[in-house]
């Protein structure tokens, strides 16, 4: 599946105003989004080397084919879990019945919410009107997601909370969000979450990102790409003067392991 994208930035003081405008534009109430994202890095295949020279470039076809498969790019992946505010630790002094809480027990007694494995490719080069990238998501119904990833050569890198609101207009998804990095956990899947108010935005000014996206099942059909691009550009035009949507530098969304 492919995803077409446009991005814009919204200062923190304008968040409420933009939410109101998007509510009117889409004729729907904002849907709260609160997600935990855990980033994993795959292990490079043994012998992976992206630089060759001299006599190394002179090889028979079989060796060249083997070298090509070894030198393929590898990409970061992530686990995503939908959350509720009650999944986070309590702010100190806000326990039930006036009991003092230290924020260290959030979510311990609750049933574990399901996870989803997500992959996002690096946007294709040469984009002029909208970005395009390959995306894939798989629901993990049962089992230990971390055990599955570690057994397949993935190691933990970092985790964060995505918080914001989602709107839908036609086939276009609008997500106004910001990122809250999480402290390094003992175990990224089982360590209790800290109090939500204790998390500071990644962007020091507290600004938000407006992501407008549209997904295509098959990007090899020009008519589908044209139709999807047209719909995103129409949204861009509708929001002109409110949020300036555009194509960001594709390498800012590069998910390849370097």
Plain-language structure description:
Helices cover 18% and strands 30% of the residues. The chain is globular and about 45 Å long. Strands 1-5-4-3-2-6-7-8 form an eight-stranded antiparallel β-barrel. The protein is α+β, with helices and mostly antiparallel strands and 258 residues long. It has one domain (2-253): Hypothetical Protein Pfu-838710-001. It comes from Aulographum hederae CBS 113979.
Concise synopsis of the structure shown:
It holds the Pfam family Med18. The chain is α+β, with helices and mostly antiparallel strands. The protein is built from four helices and eight strands.
Task: Give the arrangement of secondary structure elements.
Elements: E1 2-10, H1 15-26, E2 31-42, H2 61-70, E3 77-82, E4 115-120, E5 131-140, H3 145-151, E6 154-169, E7 172-181, E8 208-216, H4 222-238
Antiparallel strand pairs: 1-5, 1-8, 2-3, 2-6, 3-4, 4-5, 6-7, 7-8
Q: Note the beta-strand portion.
A: 25-35%
**Shape category:** globular
What count of domains describes the coordinates? 1
Spatial strand sequence of the major β-sheet: 1-5-4-3-2-6-7-8
Q: Kindly, what is the distance between the CA atoms of the first and last residues, rounded to a whole number of angstroms? A: 24 Å
What is the H/E order? EHEHEEEHEEEH
Whole-number mean pLDDT: 86
Number of strands: 8
Query: Nearest-angstrom radius of gyration?
Result: 21 Å
CATH superfamily: Hypothetical Protein Pfu-838710-001
Low-confidence stretches: 49-70, 97-101, 103-109
- Overall structural class, as computed from helix and strand content, comes to alpha+beta
Largest sheet: 8 strands, antiparallel, barrel
CATH architecture, by name, is: Beta Barrel
CATH topology, which one?
Hypothetical Protein Pfu-838710-001
CATH class: Mainly Beta
The percentage helix is: 10-25%
* Count of helix runs: 4
């Amino acid at each position: 599946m492919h995803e077409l994208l446009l991005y814009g930035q919204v200062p923190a003081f304008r968040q409420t105003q933009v939410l109101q405008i998007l509510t009117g534009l889409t004729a729907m109430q904002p849907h709260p989004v609160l997600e935990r994202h855990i980033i994993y890095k795959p292990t490079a295949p043994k012998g992976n080397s992206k630089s060759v020279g001299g006599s190394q470039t002179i090889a028979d076809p079989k060796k060249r084919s083997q070298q090509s498969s070894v030198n393929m790019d590898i990409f970061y992946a992530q686990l995503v879990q939908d959350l509720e505010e009650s999944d986070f630790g309590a702010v100190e002094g806000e326990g039930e019945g006036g009991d003092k809480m230290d924020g260290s027990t959030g979510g311990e007694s609750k049933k574990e919410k399901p996870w989803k494995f997500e992959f996002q490719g690096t946007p294709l080069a040469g984009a002029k009107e909208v970005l395009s990238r390959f995306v894939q998501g798989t629901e993990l119904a049962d089992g230990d997601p971390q055990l599955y990833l570690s057994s397949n050569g993935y190691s933990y890198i970092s985790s964060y909370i995505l918080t914001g609101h989602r709107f839908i207009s036609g086939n276009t998804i609008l997500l106004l969000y910001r990122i809250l990095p999480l402290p390094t956990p003992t175990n990224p899947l089982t360590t209790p979450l800290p109090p939500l108010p204790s998390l500071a935005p990644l962007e020091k000014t507290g600004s938000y990102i407006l992501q407008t996206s549209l997904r295509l099942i098959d990007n090899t059909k020009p008519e589908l790409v044209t139709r999807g691009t047209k719909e995103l550009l129409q949204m861009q035009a509708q929001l002109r003067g409110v949020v300036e949507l555009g194509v960001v530098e594709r390498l800012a969304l590069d998910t390849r392991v370097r």
